[in-house]
Amino acid sequence: MQLARLEAPVVVSANCLLAGHVLYLGENHQWVETLASAYRFDSLDAANAAAGKADDPAQVIGVELVGVSVQGAQTVARHYREAIRANGPGAYVFSSSTGEGDVSVQ
After folding, report:
1. Under a CB-based contact definition with an 8 Å cutoff, are residues 22 and 33 in contact?
2. Within 13 Å, how many C-alpha atoms sit on residue 40's CB side?
3. Would you give the DSSP letter of residue 9?
4. Distance from the first to the final alpha carbon of the chain
5. Residue 17: DSSP 8-state
6. DSSP at 102
């Protein structure tokens, strides 16, 4: 999904279908778990094309483009929602009853 005001650079993000955690499209078009490992696209067209190819409903859900900026050598999300997603669970983490993952509450 592309937001109307979205500008490059961007990364492709999704959620793991089985575990629910955040994933990013890496340089070799594989899913990686950290924003630092995500491939940065300088073209929205190229990012949209890659997102379309990577959208595998058996593996991920919610594929979208995320605006990022570069601070030094570090890639950081431009929007606070994506910064929260990139930095993992919130302050209050509750173990799941099935042991398959955790739930965080902000």
Report:
1. yes
2. 15
3. S
4. 25
5. T
6. E
Query: pTM (2 decimals)?
Result: 0.79
**Pairing mode of beta strands 74-77, 10-16:** unpaired
Q: What is the secondary structure of 20-87 as a DSSP string?
A: --EEEEBTTS-EES-GGGBPPBS-HHHHHHHHHHH--TTTEEEEEEEEEEEETTEEEESSHHHHHHHT
Q: Would you write out the chain's pLDDT as a tens digit for each of its 106 residues? A: 444 589 999 999 999 999 889 999 999 999 999 999 999 999 999 999 999 999 999 999 999 999 999 999 899 999 988 988 888 765 545 555 655 555 554 4
- If we measure between CA atoms, which residue out of 55, 81, 53 comes closest to residue 67? 81
Instruction: List the structure tokens of 65.
Output: 């483009």
Give the start-to-end residue ranges of the domains of the chain.
10-105
**Tokens standing for 50?**
């890659």
Q: What are phi and psi of 25, to 5 degrees?
A: -80, 125
